[in-house]
From TrEMBL:
InterPro entries: Gpn (IPR004130), Gpn1/Npa3/XAB1 (IPR030230), P-loop_NTPase (IPR027417). Residues 337-349 have a biased composition (Polar residues). PANTHER family: GPN-LOOP GTPASE 1, XPA-BINDING PROTEIN 1-RELATED. The lineage of its organism: Eukaryota, Metazoa, Ecdysozoa, Tardigrada, Eutardigrada. This is GPN-loop GTPase.
Amino acid sequence: MDMIDELAGTIDEKCHVADRPDIPLVPSDDSSRKNAPTSTCLIVLGMAGSGKTTFVENLSKYLTANGAAPYIVNLDPAVRQVPYPVNIDIRDTVKYKAVMKKFGLGPNGGIMTSLNLFTTKFSGVLDLLEKRKFEVKHMIFDTPGQIEVFTWSASGSIITEALADSFPTVIVYVMDVSTSTSPITFMSNMLYACSILYKSKLPFIIALNKIDMVDPTLVMKWISDFEAFDVAVEKEESYAANLSRSLGLILDEFYGAIRTVPVSALTCQGFPKFVEAVEAATLEFNTEYKPEMDKMKADQRESRKLKSEDRFEKLKREVLEISTGPSSSRDDKSRAMDTSVSIGPQGDSNAKHEQRNFDAEESGMEETSFQRFLESAKKAKEIAKKPAA
Ligand SMILES: Nc1nc2c(ncn2[C@@H]2O[C@H](COP(=O)(O)OP(=O)(O)O)[C@@H](O)[C@H]2O)c(=O)[nH]1
Ligand SMILES: [Mg+2]
């Protein structure tokens, strides 16, 4: 048993999800529910201290007060106290301090490794979510304080993709408005948001947080009007200001692909607008993202099939070259092709064997080129689309 299995073993014993008893459970295979809308997953991301946990806490209170208690998953292994009624808590599965000790890691490595370990058990989480998908309208995922642990790790991508494969999934980027009032920090925040949008390729909402502290009018203006941002950045005298100005022009396209909602996670100000934005993003997922993903998958299967046929033809021609020699005339080759059976069972099985090798090599390349294709197609779609902010 290796170290991960050993840890995962202990995980299962301790990991019993605190499934909230107040949400009634109706079997998801109930035929009357087949076409009912399922829960929307909200993955809450943002810089450390931007207010993710406070946002999840008060959004949960707000939704509960409006008759739709959400299902909440805490993915932050290092949080001391979870201030909301959590349904699945990573801390029940992985003990972050034990992981640090066992692997000799610092705090960030401990958080990252704990999330990786949890991800190895994520199919269990999906099973639990599946059972609840008709019972709750929103499934909310609070993520680790350090944003990069989720956004730039394999486990973050695996979790995001697994959720988007099963449920409408929306990224909620909590952005602290008080750290965005200078054009340069605003631009850094926006670049980060943009990188997450292009990486996740999912409907995206910016929750512009802490508006009880700082008036968001200026930042909202910069998002909707490049000229206003340009005027602000002109007052700055630095290389970063020049860079920000150029980036501002480029990111103008990106702003069209996102919804920005000013909120206060502390006072619940802006939450009704936020819930509306979630509804619009869910619709966008169902009508645009999902069909596109399904089409991409079908195209991928078709392209694999065509490539495979093409390769087989190529292989046949090569076998022919060998059997008839390079100087043979076209007719000779065709004849030899007709009698290819006469090459014998040995030749035939070699051909199949070679094709299998070829297939194995090529499928890796196809995977990469498909990813590239997917990204550029999605990017074009997102840039083209300009929903109202
Ligand atoms: N004034 C104000 N403070 C907030 C708001 N949201 C979060 N905070 C504070 O910001 C700090 C960090 O919040 P937390 O939710 O832990 O951030 P996280 O690291 O992103 O989870 C805490 O002191 C919160 O009380 C808000 O809307 N307004
Ligand atoms: Mg937090």
